[in-house]
Design brief:
Layout (H helix, E strand, L loop, with lengths): L64 H7 L8 H12 L3 E2 L2 E3 H10 L4 H11 L8 E2 L1 H15 L6 H15 L1
Antiparallel strand pairs: 1-2, 2-3
Length: 174
């Protein structure tokens, strides 16, 4: 009698199994479906396994690029020319909602001597890929002008470059 109450045959010579796991028969390998499988490497998307630590995502969520653009320069002093440019566009009527309209941004970007590639990069970054963006907040506008400045200085046009420059400017003031 076995430990679980079933009659087991007398111990015999151990069979050689071609299966990695002993619970799978060697002669008829069966592929278990992901939904019903109980193997070590099967995936199960059912609600029962949602609490599994293996299914959890441990990568921290990144802040949306549009949020980064809005707040990137918020804790640093902004050049007075940035403030004056924003206010001038508002006074000229390039307003949409609480920000500067896309037409006002186009006026600034087209008025700078940027290559088509740099102009596209600047607009893509500040609009967070939303080409139909109707309004640019003061924070987004400040980043737009910082990106234009980097392009004019033939630096890399990216949020990382703006952030590095911001860190240098803020640390120089301390």
């Amino acid at each position: 009698m076995s430990l679980f109450g079933d009659d087991a045959p007398a111990p015999a010579a151990r069979k050689i199994s071609s299966s990695l796991f002993e619970d799978e028969p060697a002669s008829t390998p069966q592929k278990k479906s992901a939904a019903t499988g109980s193997g070590l490497f099967t995936e199960d998307d059912s609600a029962a396994n949602d609490s599994s630590p293996w299914g959890a995502s441990f990568t921290p969520k990144k802040q949306a690029r549009s949020d980064v653009v809005k707040t990137l320069l918020s804790n640093c002093s902004i050049p007075e020319t940035y403030v004056d440019s924003f206010d001038a566009l508002v006074e000229e009527g390039f307003v949409h909602g609480s920000g500067v309209s896309k037409q006002g941004v186009d006026k600034i970007v087209n008025g700078c001597s940027l290559s088509a590639i740099d102009r596209t990069k600047v607009l893509e970054i500040t609009s967070a890929g939303n080409w139909d963006k109707a309004s640019f907040s003061r924070g987004e506008f400040n980043v737009l002008l910082a990106l234009i400045g980097l392009a004019q200085e033939e630096e890399e046009v990216s949020l990382d470059s703006v952030d590095e420059r911001r860190e240098c400017e803020c640390s120089d003031r301390d």
